[in-house]
Amino acid sequence: MDVRDDSSVNSAIRQILDREKRIDAVINNAGIAIAGALEDTSVEDARAQFDVNFFGALRVCRAVLPGMRERRAGHVVNISSIAGLVAVPYQSLYSASKFALEGLTESLRLEVAGFGIRVVLIEPGDHCTELTANRRATAQSQTHAAYRVSFDRALSRMAADEQNGPRPAAVARLVARVLDNPSPRLRYTTGPIHERAAVWLKRMLPYEAIEKLMSNYYSRP
Fold first, then answer.
1. What digits encode the pLDDT tens for the residues 134-193?
2. Which residues on neighbouring strands pair with residue 27, listed in sequence order?
């Protein structure tokens, strides 16, 4: 399905229900990454980012929830990101889309708990996937001298962390464990330990300390 298109999502869900009669679980895993300084990110870029990462999940949830609610059973697993908890420079709209998905999922979990539907967030850190090669830099970020040096350094750091990160099979195994759990918790963070540590540090330290750590990390050549 194309999660950017209502008719595509609804058609795919209808086909599955016609064939299988029910949907036990849905994993909202579709995602793209658009990189660039906020100043260099157009509204069109922002819409493209949100249309997949946020509205795509919304469309799929809306399509599957009626059947799950009638059966009073089901799992909805939304793949967020550690970047949806700790924002990353030059991926402001990617982080914003994941922050938004976090809020949607928290609210949805409250709304459907009484219908036996379990709603879960999985928040991976950097993993070795095709996201690195498919990341799109905004057009202005290629020519804007004001941010160019720091943008290139941050993007190189992101790409290196992703390609040197674990394979996504560990995330798949975590999804499988969540689906086998009749009472999963809301959040499961996974990935490199230093990235998971950033989530805990943000909860414990003054934000000025986190800001300094993030700035230093992504500005290193």
1. 999 999 998 899 999 999 999 999 999 999 999 999 999 999 999 999 999 999 999 999
2. 77
Inter-axis angle of helices 55-71 and 43-53, to 10 degrees? 20
Q: What percentage of residues in the chain have a pLDDT greater than 90?
A: 97
Please spell the DSSP secondary structure of 86-139, one letter per residue: S--TTBHHHHHHHHHHHHHHHHHHHHHGGGTEEEEEEEE---SSTHHHH-EE-T
Longest dimension (CA), the chain: 56
| Residues paired with residue 122 on neighbouring β-strands, in sequence order | 79, 188
End-to-end CA gap in the chain: 40
The span from the CA of 212 to the CA of 206, in Å, is 10
Q: Identify whether the C-beta of residue 127 lies closer than 8 Å to the C-beta of residue 168.
A: yes
| Annotated catalytic residue, options 90, 94, 147, 188 | 94
pLDDT for the residue numbered 3: 98
Within 10 Å of residue 140's Cβ, how many Cβ atoms?
Answer: 15
Buried-state track 165-185, b at ≥16 Cβ within 10 A, e below 16: beebeebeebbeebbeeeebe
Q: Could you confirm whether 188 is annotated as catalytic?
A: no
